[in-house]
Batch of 2 targets.
Target 1
Amino acid sequence: DAGVTQSPTHLIKTRGQHVTLRCSPISGHKSVSWYQQVLGQGPQFIFQYYEKEERGRGNFPDRFSARQFPNYSSELNVNALLLGDSALYLCASSLGRENVGNTIYFGEGSWLTVV
Amino acid sequence: AQTVTQSQPEMSVQEAETVTLSCTYDTSESNYYLFWYKQPPSRQMILVIRQEAYKQQNATENRFSVNFQKAAKSFSLKISDSQLGDTAMYFCAFTYNNNDMRFGAGTRLTVKP
């Protein structure tokens, strides 16, 4: 079975631009979460989506938004990019919100560099 | 607030020896889940081991085991018979609601031949 897949793997954007990152969860998984990992730090929670609804949001500005589609794939959008948005963006999937403690599986991430 | 602290930024161990990585956490929840993830240079987060807080028995996965001390809010990872492929960043993580997972800052482990 395919794991969590993310695209693109690497991208470079200019300050002020917009970026869209994509994620496909493991088949059968209904919950998708997004994390930002700045170099040298642990991942920080951005969003969780379950059944196409936002179920949790971390301490990130409104420039960050996301959505989940009927097939449970997800997009993370970041507007008005800042240099500080440069990071590895990780997508993670799990069976579902009600299954607390179910293992969360991560994709390989999307490396975003803002110049 | 839910926080996870890893106090060892870097550690090294000789191949075939044993190493223990430390992790402490803070929470007011009574039921929660703890994880150790490995992140090699490829950057993919790989689950090493998980522990359910209501289970007193320490989790074990082959060469990896944990020492879970609930009262002390401590969750250390022991790697036995260390292998070169164990070289990676190791993150301790915590969740109680599946809405979000809190990670520590990580410990960089180097296994030396």
Note: Chain A has a mean pLDDT of 92.
Target 2
Amino acid sequence: EPEVTQTPSHQVTQMGQEVILRCVPISNHLYFYWYRQILGQKVEFLVSFYNNEISEKSEIFDDQFSVERPDGSNFTLKIRSTKLEDSAMYFCASILDSSSYNSPLHFGNGTRLTVT
Amino acid sequence: TQLLKQSPQFLSIQEGENLTVYCNSSSVFSSLQWYRQEPGEGPVLLVTVVTGGEVKKLKRLTFQFGDARKDSSLHITAAQPGDTGLYLCAGPSGGYNKLIFGAGTRLAVHP
């Protein structure tokens, strides 16, 4: 079964550094998402992306965050200047058809970002 | 603000027991989804319930959506150690499949 793949599985970075988290969504999917889960807390929506542009973003997704689909297969999340509170598990997800209840959201296994 | 509250937070039971976990909100949702998440992995969709009062079965798991579409339950019959995991409910909040999640019920089934 096709799956969403994320790399790296674990990223350690120093505060103030830029990080890029990478995702390869399922190939025929059209809608892409980033969610994050701080240790012990809820999974939180960050951003949705469709037709090469952001369709919705949460208040967490401030100017330090950006997303890109540079080549039609990869979907990246960039954090420009990481803060300690950015430490979390970041999940990429994709879906074929956002309007259909029969079209499930597929999550990757996440990238654990640790900011020191 | 839409919120999903899950209970209990933790559940530790013996193999063969039955259990029910709950997902409640004061808001109406057009649908609710249940996910299972294992350590180090992303959530995996189990089921989507759409119609008020709907009951869906997935082998030993029974999902129910409340008549008013504000709550849902997951019942597991004869739990097995393989059922161990974090069970999350989630509902759409806005367009484009933006989901809000509950905090989850962490289930441990002991042999």
Note: The CA atoms of residues 16 and 81 of chain A lie 4 Å apart.
